Structures are given as structure tokens and as C-alpha cells.
């Protein structure tokens, strides 16, 4: 299966990245529909813009939350933005033998990764679980930034293959 994760510069935040270019979220959402499973990270202020874009293309998605116990606080923003929505469409269904995955993750932000918004490993592992990915899937990080998500994917696949019986990991 083909799985995509999009963590673009958040709406109105492109000035914080070297490209300094706003992402066409409507086109991105259309592109995500070409994958078996997908996820899109966003900011809480953009929810009101993204939901209508998604609804114009599909209603087959859910919204998860990345809750950040430690987040960057800005003196002009109260209450603080301490969570982010993650819109997602799982690649495959879950069966009754699967462990239940919550639709939220609590994980601290990363610091000094070279790119604003680099995702922590715990977030990435949660993302892979809510998407229902398997090590044999093709995973596409559409906005690789720091490379953290791709490194976490490699680690996740390595951990899963170590727990499989030998004949299943071939």
C-alpha cells in the first residue's frame, strides 16, 4: 500500500522556512487522495480553513491530536497553542486483535533539529499506528524537512521486523 504524510509549513507560517512559499493546501489535499492512507499535520488556527477543503473532496477522514506538554509559549498568545490537529485516513482497517490506538498522542516538541516543527519519534510511531501501516508499505514523507519522520519510519520498520517470525520477515 502507498501511505503519505504531509507536514507542510503551516498556513501563514512560510516565512519561518527557507523556501518562504505558502503551500497550496487545496492541491495538497487532492494529492493525498491518491494514496491508500494519509495524514496531514496542521495548526489549530487553520482548522477552519482545512476542514472545508477536506470536505469538498472527501468525508472519509478523522482528526487526531498531538498534545504538547511542553510547548513554546509566546507572550502575545493566551491560551497557548499546545496541541495540533492531525487529519488522517487509515490505509487499512483494524481488526479486533489489534491494540487500540488512541486518536491523540502526548509528546514534547523537539528542539534544535534544524527545522521548525520537526516531529519527535513518539509522535511518528503514533502516526504510523493510526495509519495502520506495515513495514511492507511504501511510505512517502511529502515534506521531509529535517528527515526525522523518515528516520523514525526506518526505525519503526526495523523494530517490527525484529518481532516477526523469520518466515514473515522475508
Describe this protein's structure:
The chain is an alpha/beta fold and 170 residues long. It has a single domain, classed as Rossmann fold (3-Layer(aba) Sandwich), CATH 3.40.50.150. Helix content is 28%, strand content 18%. It has 5 helices and 6 strands; from the N terminus they run E-H-E-H-E-E-E-H-E-H-H. The protein has a 6-stranded mixed β-sheet with strand order 5-3-4-2-1-6, sandwiched between helices. Helix 3 packs across helix 4. The longest helix has 16 residues. It starts with a strand and ends with a helix. The C terminus is likely disordered.
What attributes characterize this protein structure?
170 residues, alpha/beta, Rossmann fold, six-stranded mixed beta sheet, disordered C terminus
Amino acid at each position: 500500500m502507498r501511505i503519505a504524510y504531509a507536514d507542510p509549513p503551516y498556513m501563514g507560517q512560510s516565512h519561518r522556512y527557507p523556501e518562504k512559499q505558502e503551500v497550496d493546501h487545496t492541491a495538497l489535499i487532492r494529492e493525498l487522495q491518491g494514496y491508500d492512507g494519509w495524514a496531514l499535520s496542521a495548526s489549530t488556527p487553520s482548522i477552519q480553513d482545512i476542514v472545508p477543503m477536506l470536505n469538498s473532496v472527501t468525508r472519509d477522514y478523522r482528526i487526531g491530536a498531538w498534545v504538547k506538554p511542553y510547548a513554546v509559549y509566546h507572550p502575545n498568545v493566551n491560551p497557548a497553542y499546545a496541541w495540533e490537529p492531525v487529519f488522517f485516513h487509515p490505509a487499512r482497517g483494524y481488526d479486533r486483535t489489534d491494540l487500540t490506538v488512541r486518536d491523540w498522542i502526548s509528546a514534547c516538541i523537539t528542539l534544535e533539529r534544524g527545522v521548525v516543527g520537526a516531529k519527535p519519534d513518539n509522535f511518528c510511531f503514533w502516526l504510523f499506528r493510526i495509519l495502520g501501516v506495515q513495514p511492507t508499505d511504501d511510505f512517502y514523507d511529502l515534506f521531509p524537512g529535517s528527515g526525522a519522520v523518515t528516520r523514525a519510519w526506518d526505525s519503526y520498520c526495523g523494530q517490527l521486523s525484529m518481532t516477526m517470525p523469520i518466515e514473515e520477515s522475508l
